[in-house]
């Protein structure tokens, strides 16, 4: 059950997994049916209870809001007034009022006629826009408008003023862009309740964007942007991207993304919340005209570092694109002719910097240099052999030890970014674009990256939103159930009552109850190992991967049997049995054999080590009205993700029975794999397995000592499964019980 993460509803996978500019939150497409699945306009007028908004700030806005003029126009609605209906997931429609409304203020639902179908229906006032273009009188700021040719919804942000904006309206749109228009270009909404519109915007960041914009609308901030400045703009979740300002119009700027593929150009407001705050008026990215035109300053070197880097790379590459080379030569000739005073020995790079500086904001700059910037940005990434150098500086301050965020955002902390294409790709810190997890795994291996393949996802099903902190702090009764014992914090949340989770000692390793059991558990004489040095990527050569498969074959694991029946190759069977990119898609009945301390492979990066590396996803312990304490995901989890182990005290079954006399045995789990699985190959065909006392399964009891694993609830249709995993001990009595997601799990969803 979701009690606190509700405000993420309504954000489609498409929206949050791709650029906000590609998928405007409430834009409406009347022409392209392909885009309809990304349209979001919430339909629910009672959404207020679900959404956290600072009430005071809204009241402030409403008090100042003078909507009398607009309301005087629309408070009376005659029969047959033409309306544009803008509804979620539907193309826009032209309807006519079915009933006259003399007091539109007090109604939220109106009756309209659909002339094409001759039917009538009720629509909320908020979704109806007057078909007549906006009249020429002054429409105040915060007026909700619909721009028909752009198919965008937005709010008026600036009224016409001869000095400020050359007598045009500035409209902020629901896709974070902004633009100037004449009054004829947009349509007025029947509902001009700013608060109601804001409450129905379900995309939290957009709501914050508008709140921020309108609260600060009367503070006039001087913006010092100039064409050619490089600023950082949030385009994808919390990721900032470098963009170049390519045009300025009063208080909006046109920015161009450095994407090699799309080079998207959009207009945004100079005070837009998507601009990185520290970068808004940053000296290091500002171009100024220096006093001495002869010596390039540090500032300029910074400003053009990206350009010179590209040049350097190009120069280093002997097979550089010939067309681009021609262009460079030609432009250098031009620069030379304009810079007679430069000595002939000066490098090309310095020349270009000097030229940029002296000609800033001249037609030469905008007409010749600027298109050249774009050419350079559009060059395909230059091929090189990737090595440690490709990630070294990007990972300088990165440590995967304590994971504070959604782990799937970690690559972005190391200068990776997403390429919004189909299929979705990752751009490496050295600007290669990789489309498959296999390629990424190879890249991580070649560059000895600190990142693990488990932090990468494929497909668009797994979203990067919402933030893991997206729930009400006042119901957080414990910051970390594990007291710092795990790599991630496990917050405890209760918005039902004053109950706290029961007292137990948090441990992360199985705890044998006496020395005899400890000796049996720690005996690893029978444990086999591999001698791989390639992160166990070549599974044909890895004894550990082969053991997982051979045990499954001996024990007739149904999935492996199926593959054998279809005569799949050994290589394919190995590739698909056990972990695939550190995920386990299907349970293996005979157990998974991870690499262990005897193996020669890398402790972190071996592809056959996962459970032993501990927690990496964020789960929350929360109280449910019906099921009691349970666990839920704080971010999306792809299928096959390792959650945690079930940890507790290790007892013999007799000791378990004894304990059950005096205390509840609901946390006791029998390690009964030994009963189901036959012995290894050398025992096969031998005597029947002894059934003496030694073979009684051991019991894990989580009542006194345990980890978060004790809180998983049972469900009829579980979205997780338990997998027996062997690490240090290959004794069938001592498997580790590891929990994995059986399906894709969405943020906020309970795991059981
Ligand atoms: Zn590289
Ligand atoms: Zn190996
Ligand atoms: Zn191994
Ligand atoms: Zn290994």
Task: Considering the chains and any ligands shown, give keywords for the structure.
binds zinc ion; five-stranded antiparallel beta sheet; transferase; disordered N terminus; 752 residues; single chain; alpha+beta; SET domain-containing protein; SH3 type barrels; 5 domains
Mean pLDDT: 76
Assign the CATH architecture of the largest domain.
Beta Complex
Strand order of the largest sheet: 4-3-2-1-5
Radius of gyration, taken over Cα atoms and rounded to an integer in Å = 32 Å
Shape estimate = elongated
Q: What fraction, in percent, of the residue positions are helical? A: 10-25%
Q: Which stretches are low in confidence, meaning pLDDT under 50 for 5 or more residues running?
A: 1-66, 279-362, 372-381, 680-693
Profile the largest sheet.
5 strands, antiparallel
CATH superfamily of the largest domain: SET domain
User: What is the fold named in CATH at topology level of the largest domain?
Assistant: Beta-clip-like
Query: What is the domain total for the residues?
Result: 5
Small molecules (ligands, ions, cofactors) in the structure: zinc ion
Distance between the termini: 11 Å
Strand coverage percent: 15-25%
Write down the CATH class of the largest domain: Mainly Beta
> Structural class, from secondary structure content?
alpha+beta
Give a count of the beta strands, DSSP E runs of length 2 or more. 32
Task: Work out the helix count.
Answer: 19
């Amino acid at each position: 059950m979701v009690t606190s993460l509700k405000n993420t509803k309504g954000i489609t996978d498409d929206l949050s997994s791709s650029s906000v500019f590609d998928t405007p939150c409430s834009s409406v497409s009347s022409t392209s049916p392909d885009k309809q699945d990304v349209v979001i306009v919430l339909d629910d007028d009672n959404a207020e209870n679900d959404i956290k908004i600072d009430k005071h700030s809204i009241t402030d806005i409403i008090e100042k809001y003078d909507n009398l003029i607009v309301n005087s126009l629309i408070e009376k609605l005659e029969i047959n007034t033409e309306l544009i209906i803008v509804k979620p997931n539907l193309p826009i429609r032209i309807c006519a009022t079915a009933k006259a409304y003399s007091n539109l203020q007090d109604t939220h639902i109106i009756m309209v006629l659909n002339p094409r179908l001759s039917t009538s229906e009720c629509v909320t006032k908020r979704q109806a826009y007057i078909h007549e273009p906006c009249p020429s009188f002054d429409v105040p700021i915060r007026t909700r408008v619909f721009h028909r040719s752009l198919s965008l919804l937005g709010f008026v942000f600036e009224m016409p003023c001869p000095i400020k904006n050359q007598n045009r309206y500035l409209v902020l749109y629901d896709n974070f862009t902004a633009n100037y228009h004449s009054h004829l270009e947009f349509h007025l909404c029947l509902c001009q309740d700013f608060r109601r519109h804001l409450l129905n915007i379900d995309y939290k960041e957009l709501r914050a964007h508008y709140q921020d914009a309108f609260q600060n609308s009367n503070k006039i901030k001087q913006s010092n942007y100039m064409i050619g400045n490089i600023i950082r703009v949030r385009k994808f979740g919390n990721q900032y991207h470098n963009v170049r300002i390519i045009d300025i119009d009063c208080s909006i700027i046109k920015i161009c993304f450095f994407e090699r593929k799309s080079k998207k150009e959009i207009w945004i407001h100079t005070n837009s919340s998507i601009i990185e705050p520290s970068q808004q008026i940053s000296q290091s990215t500002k171009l100024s005209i220096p006093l001495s035109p002869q010596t390039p300053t540090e500032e300029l070197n910074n400003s053009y570092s990206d350009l010179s880097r590209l040049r350097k790379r190009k120069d280093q590459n002997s097979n550089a694109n010939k067309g681009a080379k021609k262009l460079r030569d030609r432009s250098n000739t031009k620069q030379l002719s304009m810079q007679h005073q430069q000595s002939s020995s000066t490098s090309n790079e310095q020349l270009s910097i000097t030229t940029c500086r002296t000609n800033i904001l001249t037609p030469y700059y905008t007409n010749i240099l600027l298109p050249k910037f774009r050419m350079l940005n559009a060059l395909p990434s230059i091929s090189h052999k990737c090595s440690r150098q490709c990630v070294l500086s990007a990972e300088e301050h990165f440590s995967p030890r304590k994971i504070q965020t959604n782990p799937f955002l970690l690559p972005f902390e190391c200068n990776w970014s997403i390429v919004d294409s189909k299929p979705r790709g990752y751009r490496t810190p050295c600007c290669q674009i990789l489309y498959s997890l296999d390629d990424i795994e190879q890249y991580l291996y070649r560059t000895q990256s600190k990142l693990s393949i488990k932090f990468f996802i494929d497909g668009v099903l797994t979203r990067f939103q919402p933030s893991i902190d997206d729930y009400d702090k006042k119901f957080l009764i414990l910051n970390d159930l594990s007291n710092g014992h795990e790599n991630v914090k496990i917050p405890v949340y209760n918005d039902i009552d004053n109950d706290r989770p029961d007292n137990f000692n948090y441990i992360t390793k199985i705890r044998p109850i006496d020395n005899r059991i400890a000796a049996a558990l720690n005996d690893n004489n029978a444990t086999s190992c591999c001698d791989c040095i390639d992160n166990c990527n070549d599974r044909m050569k890895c004894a550990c991967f082969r053991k997982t498969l051979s045990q499954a074959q001996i024990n007739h694991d149904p999935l492996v049997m199926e593959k054998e029946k279809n005569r799949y190759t050994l290589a394919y069977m190995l590739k698909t049995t056990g972990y695939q990119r550190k995920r386990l898609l299907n349970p293996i009945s005979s157990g998974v054999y991870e690499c262990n301390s005897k193996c020669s492979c890398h402790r972190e990066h071996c592809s056959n080590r996962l459970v032993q590396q501990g927690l990496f996803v964020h789960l929350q312990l929360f109280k449910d009205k019906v099921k009691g304490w349970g666990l839920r995901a704080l971010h999306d989890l792809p299928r096959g993700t390792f959650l945690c182990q079930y940890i507790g005290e290790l007892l013999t079954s007799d000791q378990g029975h004894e304990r059950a006399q005096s205390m509840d045995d609901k946390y006791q789990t029998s390690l009964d794999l030994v009963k189901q699985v036959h012995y290894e190959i050398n025992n096969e065909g031998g005597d029947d397995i002894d059934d003496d006392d030694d073979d009684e399964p051991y019991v894990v009891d989580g009542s006194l000592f345990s980890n978060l694993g004790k809180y998983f609830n049972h469900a009829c249709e579980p979205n997780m499964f338990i997998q027996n995993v062997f690490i240090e001990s290959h004794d069938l009595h001592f498997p580790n019980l590891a929990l994995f997601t059986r399906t894709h799990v969405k943020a906020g969803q309970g795991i059981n």
